[in-house]
Amino acid sequence: MKAISFLIVPLVLSAINSVASEASLTPQIDKLLERHVDEQRKSENLVGLGAIVIQNSKIIGLSVSGERKKGEGVPVSHQDLWHIGSITKSFTATMIARLVERGDLQWDTSIKDVFPGDKDIHPEWNDVTLGDLLSHTSGATPNFSLFVSLKHPNAGSERMAARESAVRHILSQRPDVNPGGTFVYSNVGYTIAGVIAEKIAGVSWENLIRKEVFSPLGIESGGFGAPEDIEGKLSQPWGHKELFGFTKSGKEDNTPIIGPAGTIHLSLNDLALYADEHLQGIQGRSSFLKRESFQRLHHPNLNNYAYGWVIGPPEELGVGDAHWHNGSNTMWYALLVILPDINAAIAITSNDGNFKVAEHSAWEIVKRLAKPLEVAHKKSLSFDAVKSTGN
């Protein structure tokens, strides 16, 4: 018995030390995040900046700094809503994956499948597929005309009709480049994909996002357009951009016609929840979609672009692969980064549309947290190994 006891003691001590080490990781990351967010926001003179870190499906850091509206002195909060711009594209692709799994669509569903025999559609569009549209290889132009961008149709059937009309105008003309062989980042392409989903499902893209993504994932803060500020009382952040040397604040957004390409807003907590579902899906541990659907969504095509995700960071982070996307409507900025090899995700948001500055700050935060998160991941693996040995 003494020999057995002697062998158990170091295991017990090791387990206690591992528990203590794991428990100490969360406040360490949280404090690092708080410091970096505040430093970046102040040094780059951003109006507001927020960030959240999730690892092993737990939020281990959440920090915000700055104001909801410049000069008003009302601080941003942990619960605030943020416009995420083109990160919306991955939500659209995720929603379509749900329809594909249900059998309502296929990844190779083509324009001619949805608009059969339509004489107004240029024949070079006929064989363009959902996969082409979601990977920016459809030949679609980057953006709609100024005339379309000025339209703000009401939600529901009016917006669906306006969206389809804008798409039909594009489809009536020859594609900008030959479909299938050239990468052209396109808000138009994602809008076409959204219209395809609307035509098949018979409901608006917004309702499809609510039904197929927000609701099953428990995202309660999700909405569309700039976050609503009830009666202008600064209950939510306002967007900001530089105009002729002055900072303009406002609640404007791009036309909702391009909703599928970039109009979602939500809280940092819910953005982390969404990111973690994709992280778990990449690793084959999510029941939200089949593993092959997540593999499709995150498989790089031309220019390392998957379906709403870029695979591989602009700069080497030294912690394995990265799946990311950023977004801006010129008055907000957001970046979402998934790091599968260290089981972590980081989201950074700002109500400042100074794109270059906000993007630099966001990636700077990611770079400064990457190694500490790698250390935390290795310690958690050691902790799991000790637990397994103890059992």
Structure summarized in a few sentences:
Pfam families: Beta-lactamase (PF00144). This is Beta-lactamase family protein. With 391 residues, this protein is α+β, with helices and mostly antiparallel strands.
Structural account:
A hairpin with a 2-residue loop joins strand 5 and strand 6 (246-250). The chain has a single domain (24-390), classed as 3-Layer(aba) Sandwich (Beta-lactamase). Helix 1 (2-43) runs antiparallel to helix 12 (355-390). It is globular and about 60 Å long. The model is unreliable at 1-22 (pLDDT under 50). The strands form three sheets. A six-stranded antiparallel β-sheet has the order 2-1-11-10-9-8, with helices on both faces. Strands 3-7-4 form a three-stranded antiparallel β-sheet. The chain has 391 residues and is of the alpha+beta class. The two termini are 19 Å apart. It has twelve helices and eleven strands. It is 45% helix and 15% strand. The relative contact order is 0.18. It has helices spanning 2-43, 88-102, 111-114, 130-134, 146-149, 157-171, 187-201, 205-217, 259-262, 268-282, 291-297, 355-390; strands at residues 48-55, 58-66, 81-83, 223-224, 239-243, 246-250, 264-267, 310-311, 323-327, 333-339, 344-350.
